[in-house]
Amino acid sequence: MLIPTRDNGYIHPCAGEITPRAVYEQRRAMLRLLAAGAGGAAMAGWAGRVALADQVRRPGRLAPLPGAPSAVPGAVTMEKVTEYQDATTYNNFYEFGTDKSDPARNAHTLKTRPWTVEVEGLVNKPRRFDIDELLKLSAQEDRIYRLRCVEGWSMVIPWVGYSLAELIKRVEPQGSAKYVEFVTLADKATMPYVGSHVLDWPYTEGLRLDEAMHPLTLLAFGMYGEVLPNQNGAPVRIVVPWKYGFKSAKSIVKIRFVEKEPGTAWNKAARQEYGFYSNVNPDVDHPRWSQATERRIGEGGLFAKKRKTLLFNGYEAQVGQLYAGMDLRKFY
Ligand code: MTE
Fold it and tell me: 142: CA distance to ligand 1 center in Å?
């Protein structure tokens, strides 16, 4: 029987669990570490592991979404995970307002069921997926990614999801499909800023097909071991860890395979400032500010020492070959 209990001030139905929660969470984090580190060779010592085990705790606010440890190279960073409170209250989700605190305040109106994702365009097997079917299409994995926003801040977030490639393989893209476009929900009834002139709605994004097929490109359904909070893009979003955060489209309803580079929300809004590629690159400044450093959210506020931004957000070993021979100043 599930009895509601209080933990961290939030009610959750896990009193029926036989394994005490702290033990379960510790065990889960250890398994993740062992698998993700391919034996732990490149990992910090025991203290580091215990510290990480501490960080990936489920906050106990939303439904659990367990993931298996990811074996994808680069899928787990050992950096300190951002506090759940920060990751869920300092957001960009313009459909709910332009202030960082607006999404957490306003996104409760988003209805995440029923929800479907239409996969269409240049594929042999176009399909409409019900969200619960999409959730189970492949095994859910835990991944810990750095997220670098174009505005100069960054976070470290434990996501739950699977490689977008798993879905792409199933719909069989045709030879002429060169790009993937992501279309997100634009519902005036539940999203107060849709209809405003801030952006051209719906918010759309795009990737080259080989970028979309890269195993690090994640179709995310959860974070911190639970389903996504609305303000973070429920019920399903993309996460592309080596690109600026705006490439990671939230609350997607359509995935379209196309031949030509698709327009994207920010590219349409300010072409000279936001290119299609938008790879994190400390050497290519935004026209109005430097991209050389970043402020990690949760690290001592405005007066904290900034970190150096890394090429491809530190994922160069994994994704650098996608851009071999390209002029990254031209294709920014
Ligand atoms: N997706 C939609 N649909 N609408 C948005 O406004 N903002 C983007 C991206 N995805 C946005 C979106 C930006 S600018 C960033 S930095 C990330 O979402 C932020 O994701 P987070 O709130 O989970 O950190």
Answer: 20
Closest CA to 201 of 211, 209, 210, 191: 191
Query: Hey, what are 285's tokens?
Result: 């400044």
**Domain end position, chosen among 34, 55, 76:** 55
Q: What is the DSSP string of 166-187?
A: HHHHHH-B-TT--EEEEEE---
Task: Kindly state if the Cβ of 153 falls inside 6 Å of ligand 1.
Answer: no
24: domain range?
1-55
d(CA 145, CA 157): 6
User: 330 lies in a domain?
Assistant: no
On whether residue 329 sits in a domain, the answer given is no
pLDDT digits (tens, 9 = 90+) for 205-252: 999 999 999 999 999 999 999 999 999 999 999 999 999 999 999 999
> What integer pLDDT is reported at residue 56 of this predicted model?
65
- Token duo for residue 317: 């070993």
Q: Does the CB atom of residue 164 touch ligand 1 within 6 A?
A: no
Q: How many residues does the chain have?
A: 332
Residues 42-57 have pLDDT tens digits of 444 444 444 445 556 7
The CATH number that applies at residue 233 is 3.90.420.10
Q: Same structural domain for residues 305 and 228?
A: yes
Unique residue bearing structure tokens 């957490």: 104
Are 191 and 95 within 8 A, CB to CB? Answer: yes
Does 18 reside within a domain? yes
The number of the ligand 1 atom at minimal distance from the alpha carbon of 232 is: 23
Assess whether the C-beta atom of 93 lies below 6 angstroms from ligand 1.
yes
